[in-house]
Every structure is written in structure tokens, then in C-alpha cells.
DNA sequence: CGGTATCCGGGACGATACTG
DNA sequence: CAGTATCGTCCCGGATACCG
């Protein structure tokens, strides 16, 4: 990665090249997985997602949704009612992804105590 | 997330709770997937990984390896020779994860042009 | 209800240089 | 070969406040 990307941010530079690593980074990002999995059941509203995705802030939810919409993984449907109603739906491309994500989450749930234990051991042996 | 986590970083705070989102964040992080997939073939050396994982810097490779080792996903074996030789091997826990990761990478490869196209469309319709 | 705007601290990350 | 150290930048992401 040369230093001659003057006037262009690293973000833009990487997007230009669009390697898989960057695609994965979007799709498998901290919040993206939660949102994608939560939206898999069917159309989901903004506030629902806020509750379903544990620990996400309103700001990050908005940003994550916009990013996923931009990548063509989510469709945003606005119903011009009062109060407003907005629904998010997975695209076919995203639905195809769902199984991989689900198995990832499953793995994480099954092994998270083992991971916590491994960390404690590692920390104990490196910092006495 | 209360504001009363004085004296404790956000990192530490989240690790304490250790929710799946944080486990996934480690495992599915930008570089972690690449490293994990590259190491799946068998024992891999540091320099090999540097070549296999496209675009990673030496620094990030080291940090990623340490993080994965700490989480109990990688075993680091040092051979006390000159020049030194270090091998990284997946643990059983990590090997179990490999299939999910591989299908994720496969998905990303199959759809990355579609994603690039979706972005262009999105950008064109939002910023005229 | 479903956002947007602003502020700001801390972490992610590359570049560069040095080492056993 | 396989790292560590240091530095500087950019961006992630929470807190808070405001809006149609």
C-alpha cells in the first residue's frame, strides 16, 4: 500500500480495489451480523432492531443499516403514515448469506465460555 | 451501557460481559478470517501468512495472531533454531469454525461485483 | 417513530525503524 | 526469520441533543 494516495482516504482507496477482505469487513462487522440475523425473520422495523440487536446504539444502528442498504443487502421501505413506519427486508443476496452467519453465531455461543477461559489462562501465563 | 464505567475502558467493559457480539468481533474481524482460513491447511509460518493474507501489514499480522492465540484459536510453536522458526496451528475449536468461515469467504467472492454495483447505484441516486 | 447533528475519546491501522 | 517500538492519522462508536 503506497503512500501516494494523497487526496484519497484509506477508506476510498480500499473500496476502489474492493477485495474480499473489505466485503467481509462490511458483512461480518461487529453489528452487521446482528442486524442481518435479526432481519432474517421477515420485515423488521427500526425500533424492533434496536431491541433485538443487543447493545447497539441508535447511531450505530442507523449507520449499519445505511451501509447494508448501500451494499444491496437490505431494502428500506418507508410507509408515509403518522407516526412514520419503516421496514427493512433482506435481499436475496443477503438471504443466501444467512446460513453462514447463523452457523457463525452458533459457534460463538457454543464456545464463548471456552474462549473466556483461554483468555484467562493466557493472561495469567504472560503477566505474572 | 451505563456511564458509570469510570476507570475501566470500553474494551475491558465489553470483555467483562463477554457477549457473543464480542466473540464474533474477534473471530470475524477484518484480518482474523484471512489468518484463520490461511492457517487451516496445516502449520503455517509467519512469513507465509504475510504472503497469504493479502494486504496485511506485519504489525497487524502480529496483533491478530496474538489475539487469536489468546482466544485459544491458534497455537504458537517456537523452534529454537537459527534463523528462528515459528509455526501457527489451528486448535480444534478453530477447526470447527473453519467451514462457516470458508462459506462466508465463498459468498463474498461470488457477490463482490454485485455489491460494487449496488454501491454505485446507491451513490448515484443519493448524491446527484 | 425514526431518524440527524455534533462532540470527542480511544482504538485500529499503516509507515518506519530497530532487534535477537 | 519473526518479531517489537514508536508515531501519527483516521475512523469507530458512545453520549447527548434536536427534528419532521
TrEMBL record, chains A, B:
Keywords from the named record: DNA-binding, Transcription, Transcription regulation
Superkingdom as given in the UniProt entry: Bacteria
Domain HTH hxlR-type residues, every copy: 18-116
PANTHER family: TRANSCRIPTIONAL REGULATOR, MARR FAMILY, TRANSCRIPTIONAL REGULATORY PROTEIN
Protein's name according to its UniProt entry: Winged helix-turn-helix transcriptional regulator
Keyword DNA-binding: yes
Amino acid at each position: 500500500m503506497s503512500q501516494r494516495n494523497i487526496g484519497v482516504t484509506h477508506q476510498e482507496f480500499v473500496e476502489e480495489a474492493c477485495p474480499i477482505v473489505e466485503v467481509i469487513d462490511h458483512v461480518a462487522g461487529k453489528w452487521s451480523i446482528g442486524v442481518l440475523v435479526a432481519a432474517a425473520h421477515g420485515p423488521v422495523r427500526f425500533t424492533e432492531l434496536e431491541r433485538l440487536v443487543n447493545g447497539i446504539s441508535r447511531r450505530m444502528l442507523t449507520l449499519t443499516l445505511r451501509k447494508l442498504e448501500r451494499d444491496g443487502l437490505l431494502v428500506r421501505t418507508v410507509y408515509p403514515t403518522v407516526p412514520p413506519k419503516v421496514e427493512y427486508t433482506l435481499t436475496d443476496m443477503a438471504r443466501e448469506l444467512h446460513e453462514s452467519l447463523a452457523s457463525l453465531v452458533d459457534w460463538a455461543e457454543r464456545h464463548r465460555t471456552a474462549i473466556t477461559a483461554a483468555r484467562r489462562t493466557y493472561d495469567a501465563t504472560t503477566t505474572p
